[in-house]
Amino acid sequence: MAVVVTEEMIGVPSWDLYELSIPCTVFGKPQPDLADPWYDLRLCGTGERAPDGTAANTGLVLRTPYGLDDLVGADTVIVPSVPDACVDEGQPLPPELITALRRAYDAGARMVSLCTGAFALAEAGLLDGRRATAHWMHTAQLAERYPKVQVDASVLYVDDGDVLTSAGLTAGLDLCLHLVRRDLGAHVANQLARRMVVPAHRPGGQAQFIESSVPARDDEGLAPVLDWARARLDRPLTIADLAGRAAMSPRTFYRRLQAATGTTPLRWLLEQRLALARELLESTDLPVEKIGELSGLGTANNVRHHFLKHIGVSPSDYRRAFPTAP
Length: 326
Prior knowledge:
CATH architecture of the domain at 2-187: 3-Layer(aba) Sandwich
Structural class: alpha/beta
Mean pLDDT: 85
Strand order of the largest sheet: 3-2-1-4-5-9-8
Largest sheet: 7 strands, mixed
Helix content: 40-55%
Pfam family, one: HTH_18
Low-confidence stretches: 8-12, 53-61, 210-219
Protein name: AraC family transcriptional regulator
CATH class of the domain at 2-187: Alpha Beta
Strand content: 5-15%
GO molecular function: DNA-binding transcription factor activity; sequence-specific DNA binding
Domain HTH araC/xylS-type: 223-321
CATH topology of the domain at 2-187: Rossmann fold
Number of helices: 14
Organism: Streptomyces poonensis
């Protein structure tokens, strides 16, 4: 994991520290009990390199031993943000940074941006013809400056395979956990999220504009009924069932859940069932038919249909990618 630190960020506006700290927190601390080896995180600066042995390769430092040349050869390159002047005033990004991003992509790196980092990927031409996002406060500028980019201002993050972009702040954390989920599986991502005391999974299509990302645990209307539903995914569940459990009308329940999570009740149920199916594929050798029964996805054909549509691979291919855990 190579994280770009522009020279202007080392200094450092406090609001830029959050996006920079996200990949350092998710990928920089070894988690040998979850996966060994873990990620090899390197901060790659655009400024002068630090002498060998004088700076750690993780954590916030004034200078880093890694430079832009180190982007080439990385498996993943993350641009957390770019200086405000590059976004608001049109100040050019360092040409050596743009060249390094193109070289890294051409060498096969997976390219990722958090918040305004999308401006760097767009300037490098890596978002041309692709759907992408950034913080909603900057998406209009992104669309105006780079008309070849299909800017979606409403979503938390966009996974376009080898290029991924996210909105700002906590959406960047969602995307980084999504990368762990892609690389190491749902179980590892869920356990890491639990350690970080954050929601295990918010889908990229969830709206940026919601009242709360997750219902409060003391919300007597929603949290208990969602826990109740998660424990009964193997059963047929309808909006009327959930609303009745919450002692609300179906219309009121629909509105409350959408305001709290940015998604509909049926979509929420599908996401929970897919999450359970993924974990069962990773952690058991149960046949797909049984996993469909336990997760509520139905027949083996239905499980395959939903995996191909929403995850992009078949259940058998997914299982091969994440061998059964002990």
